[in-house]
């Protein structure tokens, strides 16, 4: 891949909560995110960082991760503890859309998108590890991530794709013919075809990413698919992934009890629908760590993080 541009932070904005894991932007340049204590927040006034307003819109009662804005003033939320939710942004009402799949409780929801036909697609990162022990899945390399679909009017989702390595971010192609899924544990983006002769099949979209991909975001069909790189590739981890399941399981049991501090190596990339790189930005030694999401809003490239207590406003990329 081309040499990356520098990912330059303009300002850090505290939000009064930890872990804004996903960030999405609305048409007015406001940013929505969910934090560790269950609140859904909206940040307004990003054009003047000195006057940013943080408003609490709702409380899911769980751990909100991926978000998807709807055209009817609704918000879809993948809650790692409660399942797939819908929040009414006008009054903060939270409704459960799905809390089980295949007869089992739905846990580990990660990211979600809604398509024009009313279908909702979302990912589950692991069947074995909870959000507070996510590193166990990365170490064990369980391959228990899933892509699910909730059809219009359905009460329960269907499993479309399983065997994914920590299924995470999700974004549609411009024509909604396929979805792109971030597999954090494999450092790749996977394409799942929705239409055409390959419908129902998954294949590699972009492989060997320079870091671990997390959430995906697309501001509209004319824009690229953005992916946040939460951390660098880790050679010892990749060697461990080649070991036996017993060795990986033992390593994971240790990992979930060890203190964790992310590195200062983060990045953001953007791709077109052919998988070509549109932008590649990276930072080493960043004081803002573990960038798990990225979106464009109010003239900034906005980063979210499952680790930090705020968002980062960065310089937008220089067009090629």
UniProtKB/TrEMBL annotation:
SUPFAM superfamilies, sorted: Calcium-dependent phosphotriesterase
Keywords: Glycoprotein, Phosphoprotein
Organism: Streptomyces prunicolor
Lineage, top ranks: Bacteria, Bacillati, Actinomycetota, Actinomycetes, Kitasatosporales
Location of the Strictosidine synthase conserved region domain: 116-196
Family statement: Belongs to the strictosidine synthase family.
A Pfam family it matches: Str_synth
The name this protein goes by in its record: SMP-30/gluconolactonase/LRE family protein
InterPro entries for the chain: 6-blade_b-propeller_TolB-like (IPR011042), Strictosidine_synth_cons-reg (IPR018119)
């Amino acid at each position: 891949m081309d040499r990356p541009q520098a990912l330059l932070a303009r300002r850090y904005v505290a939000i009064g909560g930890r872990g804004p894991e996903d960030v999405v932007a609305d048409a007015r340049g406001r940013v929505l995110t969910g934090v560790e204590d269950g609140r859904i927040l909206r940040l307004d006034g990003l054009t003047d960082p000195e006057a940013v307003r943080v408003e609490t819109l709702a409380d899911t009662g769980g751990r909100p991760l991926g978000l998807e804005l709807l055209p009817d003033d609704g918000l879809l939320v993948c809650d790692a503890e409660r399942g797939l939710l819908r929040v009414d942004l006008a009054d903060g009402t939270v409704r459960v859309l799905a809390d089980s799949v295949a007869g089992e409780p739905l846990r580990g929801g990660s990211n979600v998108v809604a398509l024009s036909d009313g279908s909702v697609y979302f990912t589950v990162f692991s069947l074995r590890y909870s959000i507070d022990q996510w590193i166990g899945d990365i170490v064990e390399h369980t391959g228990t991530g899933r892509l699910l679909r909730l059809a219009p009017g359905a009460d329960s989702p269907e499993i479309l794709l399983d065997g994914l390595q920590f299924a995470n971010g999700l974004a549609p192609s411009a024509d909604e013919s396929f979805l792109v899924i971030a597999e954090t544990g494999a450092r790749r983006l996977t394409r799942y075809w929705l239409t055409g002769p390959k419908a129902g099949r998954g294949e590699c979209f972009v492989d060997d990413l320079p870091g671990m991909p997390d959430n995906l975001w697309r501001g509209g069909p004319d824009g690229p698919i953005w992916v946040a790189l939460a951390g660098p590739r880790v050679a010892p981890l990749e060697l461990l992934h080649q070991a036996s399941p017993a060795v990986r399981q033992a390593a994971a049991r240790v990992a979930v009890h060890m203190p964790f501090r992310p590195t200062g190596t983060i990045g953001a990339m953007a791709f077109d629908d052919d998988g070509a790189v549109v932008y590649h930005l990276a930072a080493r030694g960043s004081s803002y760590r573990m960038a798990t999401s990225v979106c464009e809003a109010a003239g900034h490239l906005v980063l979210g993080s499952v680790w930090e207590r705020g968002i980062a406003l960065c310089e937008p990329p220089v067009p090629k």
